[in-house]
Protein 1
Amino acid sequence: MINIRKYQEKDKELLRDICIKTSRLPIETEDQRKYLTLMYNDYYTEVEGRNCFVAVDENDVAVGYILCAENFARYSKIFRKFYLPEIKKLGMNYYFMAIGEMAAHLLYSKKYPAHLHIDILDVCQGQGVGTRLMNELKNHLKSKNVPALMLSCGGDNTMAVKFYKKNSFKVVKNLAGSYIMGIDL
Ligand SMILES: CC(C)(COP(=O)(O)OP(=O)(O)OC[C@H]1O[C@@H](n2cnc3c(N)ncnc32)[C@H](O)[C@@H]1OP(=O)(O)O)[C@@H](O)C(=O)NCCC(=O)NCCS
């Protein structure tokens, strides 16, 4: 039995593990691990935990998450100041990957101020958990009058693209094989 609840501080390390385990990139080094968690976890859980939801098992152990930054301008300001410098320390290749992803979001952030990341452990995929997390986040953002939500996703991640389309996201732009997808709330 999987429940959906708000993020709690105790979830932080488990969410980092889920981020690593569900990555489509091979994670072989500590730097790769650090990059993924800096890029896709830490800002959201540390700064916007109130906008994050977690899927937990019957022992209240996290098996998946949806993390959200509500406003891109605010995210960008804080991320550039505190998180991007840490990514830069890992190497310029990581730095440019991060900048590239941020730039892609920036292009569409006026229409879609919020963005998300979602990951669910293999054993819990395909059972509606992602859809429940997505609905929880959409309702939460609607209650805060956030007008629209976006994400970026590898166009070759066909399962995820299918999932987002099923959850009413549209492809806004195909940027060299990476999709920007968005939804009006
Ligand atoms: C993508 C992801 C978040 C979807 O969550 P989920 O709980 O597995 O999805 P749901 O069970 O709610 O499925 C909803 C729809 O998504 C699609 N989908 C989900 N799992 C699928 C699978 N294994 N194969 C094909 N389509 C799938 C289907 O269209 C499904 O609808 P249907 O059951 O009526 O066919 C989850 O599978 C995941 O974390 N994957 C690995 C990490 C990842 O790719 N994250 C996104 C990075 S951009």
Protein 2
Amino acid sequence: MSKNKIKEQGYFDTSFSLSLEDRMTSLRAVSIAVIFYIIGYAAKLTVLFSDALNAKIPNIYIRIPTSLFTALALSVGLLIVSVNENNKKTPYLIALMDAIALFLLFDVLNSQGTDIITTSFLSVFMAFVGYNLINVFVTKRKQEFNEAKQTLNNLEQEVSNKKQTLNNTEQELDNVKQALSTLEQEKTEVEQQKAIIEQDLKERTCPHCDTTFTSKKALNPHIDKCKMNPKNIKN
Ligand SMILES: [Zn+2]
């Protein structure tokens, strides 16, 4: 199995081995919870708008869509503001308005007895959960963004390292080529020297008895007198 295949398998293994805890706290899970929260927020506002517009728009077919779309626009707008707003007070204001919306919806001021406690608790609790949910969503999003950025940085660093390694290898290859070329040049020179020496030796050696003399001049008188010279061999 090739290295890449092992890597791919490793990658898939990691992605499939996400634990239930990881899935429950993933950005996707938090996003789904936020969407539900926004739908609920929009529903609450729709009822409030519809109540407030009751006298002005008696026709239910106009009043309900008007209230619904206004509520949706406000709820989604609220989410966008809470995610992008850098002011730390904004989430508290949003939670406070959420609580007030629920107070009005439950008509807490006109409730009596234990109803006041139940509706007040529900209003405050839901606003608290909503506030924290949006906070978690923002934190998770930033965290995932930072992780992705970190991964990108690591990959860039890896690419840079590989490029450096490639450059080093190319440099080494050039050096080896250079050394090989020098060696080949030296070999040619040695062969040339060897040929010169052999030629010189041959010129100083008697072709009949293979005796080597100190110079060509010393060899010449010998050749005629050489006992192995066919001219000197008596039949
Ligand atoms: Zn000889």
